Structure formats: structure tokens, C-alpha cells
Amino acid sequence: MRLSRSFTWLIICVVLFGTMPALAQTPTPPPTPTVTACGLPTGGGEIRSSVTYTMTADCVLTGTIHIQNARPAHSVTINGGGHTITGGNFNFIESVEATLTLNDVTIDGENTSGRNHNHFIRARTVNATRVTFTGGNSPQMLWVTDSSLSNVLFHGNISNLQGISNVGSVMFMEPNSTHTWNNVVIRRNHGAGGAIHLRSGSTLTTTGCLTSYDNLPRGVYVESGATWTNSSTGRCSGAIGNGGQTAAAPSLLSCGFPAAGPLYTSATYTLQSNCDLTGPYYISDSISITVIGNGYTLRSRATGHLLRVPATSSLRLENVALAGLRLYNYGDIRAERIEATGTVNGILSNGGEARFTNALFADNTAPGSYHRSVAFADNLYQRGAITFTNATFRNNTGGLGVLATYGATILLNGCIVFESNSPTDTYIYANSEGVVTDNRDTNCANPVVDPVVPPSPQIERPVIPNASGDDDSAKSACNPHCASPPPEPAFEGCDLKLGAIGLVCRPRVQPPVAAVWRIRPNPAGAHLPAVGDFLLSVNQPQVEAAGEGLVACSPDGRLAIRTGLPAELRRIFENTPKYADDLRAPRRYIVISKGEEPQEGKVHNIVLDNALDGRVFGIVDTFGGPPAPECVTRAPAQPAPQPPTPTPAPVYAAAFVEPQAAQPDGSIIHVVQTGDVLDAIAVAYGVDPGEIIQNNQLANRGRWIYPGQQLLIRAAS
Predict the structure, then answer these.
(1) Contact at 8 Å (CB) between 676 and 654?
(2) Residues 59 and 43: beta-carbon distance below 8 Å
(3) By the number of CB atoms within 10 A of the CB, which of 126, 156, 201, 616 ranks highest?
(4) pLDDT at 317
């Protein structure tokens, strides 16, 4: 049968084109959003021009508001009138190029978990005035290139990304971006590398007031290559954000410790009695808190982490009992003579560095399979480590073990005793690279039973002839940098030790004052408290007047107080990961340095942040003589040397030391008598003084020995 030509072409078309895919269709752009009764387009859509919206009520978004990417960029303004914008499982406002201006409004993510968005607001530039950003539960609340903020509150945002990553729980700042802030509060934002993450090449300038507390691990994370210029004048007060109120500093309880709340400034708290704590404490960024317990107890009946330490701050606990008190640490904790009992789910959750010395942990519990009954070490931020030296763990039950680690290090030093604990003493999570380093003394005979001692002075107040502690000849030779005789300072707030030779006292007065004392053994015997010699004190106005450089020094040049971080100390800190990030933030340093006697050559350095009552930035030992060569007094010129006159060889006063007979096993033990000195003892037995120092592990090169002390002269045969 013969087909018509038209029908033949029809078949060819079907064969050639019938199975081809349909040509791509140009997507229809979403419609311009319709403004709803609250004054915003709440149902999604795309804004295709610059526009201003005025809210008349709270708005609940049901879809993402897109702003068209165009050149020139669109500008969208939302005047909130004090109202709130909330929404569901999506980004709130989305654009790469647009400028978004927010006034008098709250952006509330409602802490809804499981959202699909990566941020709540994405824009090239965000300008915000009297705005509150809260309730975020995603990688970050804001993703911006540039920002200009005035009177803004970031509160209660959580990032679901952990560890140091290129996000922030509040704001992710693009590389090479610019940000200017005035009057900003950042509080209680958790997760990611910090609340604010400043990327490389970016700049952040803060003026007006600035408050940052309870941001874990930190408030502002400054990436390498970024710059934060902090010209803020202090913490904020009154109304901040869209109707938000700042928290006042807590008042002091009768026991000597603050009531619950944020701790804004560095301080030393000395307990006068036992304290019943009623709520959580939030240590602000970049401060140091010290608690001198005097043997009293901090007691908490709360189950959550009651005291939280951010990455840039430190907590010192000395001679205090903790009952039910839990610590959450990303910063630096030092605890000495501690008794910790009665906690549920562990005393410490640690992502920073913590050290406990002479401590007792007893009767703590962890229901179910919670991490630990005492302490959990986490290496989430590559700095988690806990060290226990001379500690007893007794009757702690539940959880995975007494001590647990996930990728972090737990060190056991000195006399460590585990008694009647279950299910296990230490637990390492599988495949976590956690480590328990056991350096304990296997022969220790004195486990820590009761490390907390009753109230007693740790150092006697010295009796000195004048306030400077120096005689007139020393003062007459002193150069202009020597401290003039100040009023004798109150002997309190002595929380900083310069090795074993010095003590820094910082009483809670205004303007801040720091006094330094030299510590020496009690001449009446090493079993008695040490005594101290007052060296010098300086106040904050003196520090301000000094500018960059030397503030004061002792007449012998072995103690110096200066501003600015010397190159040697900076190099040490830069090579220590926990300090590397902090060094990038602009701050002023005050360095207190105290050297040993000349033959020792070691110098102990305490670096304070910003003020005499500020946090302790770091403590480090250096070597090489006096801390401040410019302090050393030059010896007066001597007359021309005369030919030496022959003198007889020196006669050692060996007659003052009576050698004592050997023991039955052949050893020789010398019992020190009143008036004995090391050199005379060495002569009496015909040995080198260094041998006696080594045999008996004498400190200070054996200069301090006391009557009744037994010195090993010769070991048993």
C-alpha cells in the first residue's frame, strides 16, 4: 500500500523526535510577595526592588523571603515597631547581594531543633539598630559580608556544629569583610568556634559598651589574619536590643561569695563562712576569678552546670570544699586543696585545661550511662586536658567510670588512690584517641584523706622597719625606677604565687593595687608557715602613667613590674596553642617578674590582662638573670686597686659542727643543731655541700635548714 507523502513525514517526525526530551523551560520566578496583616510578606516569594516594610504586629513566616540579586543591589528595610519575627523549618530572609536594614525588631528562631536552614538571615550587608537576635538553633543566626550594629543583643543562640569551624553560633563573617559595632551584648550563645567568628582578612571595630558572658567556648573567635579593634568603654547596662535588659552584677552574699548571675570583672573572693548557692554563675570573657575558701564549703542543690568558664577566662580554687557544685570549663581551672562531694553527673565537664592538686573526690554519682561520676575530658577544641596530682577518688559510682575521656588527655601524677569506685576508675571512648597517662607514685603511703584545712593564715604578716622593706643605704643607691615607699598595703587578696619565692596581693580596692612580697622559710623551722618581706606596691594610675615600659622595680633589680609583653614571653606564648588565639586580640599586658638569687638564674613571670585586678593571661618561667636589667643598681666606683696583701688560707668553722656517728647499717645521718650551716656540716664530714643538697633534695641550694632536720650524709653500705 502506498503512503501519502504527508503521512510519511509524520512517521519520520515521530521516529526522530518522539523520544527526545522536552526542551528546558525557563522557570517562572516566584511572585512578588504579598504583604500580610502584620506588615510583612510572610508566605515567601521574591522581593524584586528596594522596599520598606513597617510591622504592625508580630509576624510568623511560612516561607523564606528571597531578595532578588541585582546590580545595583536592592535595599530592604524592616521597621519592626518593637514586634517579633518567627518562622518554621526554613531560612528567614535570603540574599547574597542585598542590603538588609532592621530597626526595633526581634528575630526569634524559637530554639526549634532539626531545622534545614544554614542560617536565619543571609545578606551582603546588615544594618541593625535596637534589634535582638535570639533562639537560633542552626550553624549560625547571621551570615553576612559587612555589618553595622547599634544597640543589638545576641542571646541564647545554639550552633549544631561543634569544634573550631568556619561558623559562629551567632554570626559568620565572610573573609575580608568589615564590621562596626556600637553598644552590643553577646550572652549565652553556645557551640561552634564561638558566638562570633571573624574570618581571615576581616576587621571588627567595637565602640560604646560591650558585654560578653556565658558564650561557650568564647564570645569572639578571631581567626588568623583577622583584626579586632576593641575600643569599647565597659559593659552595657540598661536596655539593649529590642526591649532586652542587661543583667546587673550580683551582690555579695554574707559568706563572701556573689549571688547567682554573671561575673563581669576579675575578683578574688575570700569565704567567711559556708555558702548556699542558689543558681548558675557565668564568668565573663577575659577575666580571672579566684576563690580563697579558708576551709569553708560552696554548696549547690542545682543539677546543671553551676559555674561556667569560657575559653578566655580562668578560675582558681584554693582550700575550699565543693558540695554538689558542677563546673563547665573551656578555659583554665586551677584547684588546690579541694574536697568535692555529692555531685550528680560529674563535677567537671572539661574542654579546656584543668589541674587539681591535693584533692579528694568522694560520694559522687552518675545515673545510667552518663559520661562520668567525677570528670569528663573532651578534646572538641584541641585543648582538653585534666591533671590530677595527689588525689583520692573514693566511693564514686555510676556512669561509664570515675574519669572519662573522649580524645583528650587525663594525667595522674603523684599519690593517686582509687577506692571503692564503680563501674571502673578510668574510661576511654573507643576510637577517640583519648589517653590516660599514669605517672602515679606506686609506693605512696599518704593518700589524700582531707585536703581542706580550717581557716589559718598561709603566710605571716612580716614585721618590717619601714613600708619599703629596705634600709636607707639601699634607697639612696636606687635609680628613678625604684618604687618610692608607698603606704603599707592591706595584706589580703594574695592569690598569685611567683614560683616559691614571691607572692602578689591584689586587695579589692579602687583604683586597683598590686603588692609584691618576698617569701622565705620561717627561721624558726620549716614546719611553720613561711614569712614574707614587703618589696613594693603599685596602683593603676602608676601603670597608666608609665605607658609602655617599666613601672617600678625593687632596689636589687630582681623584681620588676612593666607594661607590654616582652619579646621573649610573646615567643613562648605564641608557641603554646592555648595562647595563640588570645594573642591576636588587642589588649594591654602587665608583667610582674621576680627573679631567684643570682646563682639560680630563673625568673618567674605573671602576665595580667589589661589591669592590676585583671585576669591572669599566663604564668611562665624564664632563665637568664634579673627580670629588668635597667633596674639593677650600679655599684659605687671603687678606688684604684692596691697590691694584694698575702693573707692566710681561710679557716672553716668546722668546730661548730660535731660529726655524728654512723648508723648500724653504715649510713650517716646528721641531725641539724641550732647554728648549723650547710658549709660547716660539709666540712665536718669531709664531703662536698652539693652532695648533701642532692642526697636530701634541698631547695634554694640548701640555704634554709632548720634544727631537728635529718640530713643524709652517706647512704647505707
Answers:
(1) no
(2) no
(3) 126
(4) 95
What integer pLDDT is reported at residue 11 of this predicted model?
A: 40
Residue 21, Cβ density class (10 Å: 0-12 exposed, 13-18 middle, ≥19 buried): exposed
pLDDT tens column, 215-251:
888 888 888 899 999 999 988 988 999 988 888 888 8
Rounded Cα distance, 520 and 676, in Å: 18
For the chain, the first-to-last Cα distance in angstroms comes to: 128
Sheet holding 616-623, edge to edge: 550-553, 559-563, 589-595, 602-609, 616-623
Q: How many CB atoms lie within 10 A of CB 195?
A: 31
572 by DSSP, 3-state: which? helix
Torsion sign across C-alpha atoms 409, 283, 365, 163: negative
Return d(Cα 199, Cα 212) in angstroms, integer: 19
Task: Report the phi/psi class of residue 45: left, alpha or beta, with left for phi > 0 and alpha for psi in -120 to 50.
Answer: left
| Cell numbers given for 300 | 549547690
Longest alpha-carbon distance in the chain = 147
At 547 the pLDDT is: 78
Buried b / exposed e along 350-369 (16+ C-beta atoms within 10 A) = bbbbbbbbbbbbbebbbeee
pLDDT digits (tens, 9 = 90+) for 447-500: 787 788 765 434 444 333 333 333 333 333 344 455 444 444 445 677 788 877
Contacting residues for 66 by C-beta, under 8 A, at least 6 apart? 30, 44, 45, 46, 47, 94, 95
Helix axes 689-696, 678-685, angle to 10 degrees: 110
Asked whether 532 and 519 are in contact (CB, 8 A), the reply is yes
Look at the block and give the residue holding cell 590582662: 609
- The count of residues in the chain is 717
Residue 4 C-alpha cell reads as: 501519502
Contacts of 443 (CB under 8 A, 6+ apart): none
CB count within 10 Å of CB 60 equals 15
In this predicted model, what pLDDT tens digit does every residue of 649-668 receive, in sequence order? 332 223 357 788 888 888 88
> Across-strand partners of 147?
126, 179
User: What local confidence, expressed as pLDDT, does residue 28 receive?
Assistant: 54
- Cell readout for 98 is 542585598
Q: Phi and psi dihedrals of 619, rounded to 5?
A: -130, 125
3-state secondary structure of 652: coil
Q: How is residue 535 written as a grid cell?
A: 618589696
Q: Can you name the residues that pair with 348 across neighbouring β-strands?
A: 327, 375
pLDDT band at 673 (very low <50, low <70, confident <90, very high): confident
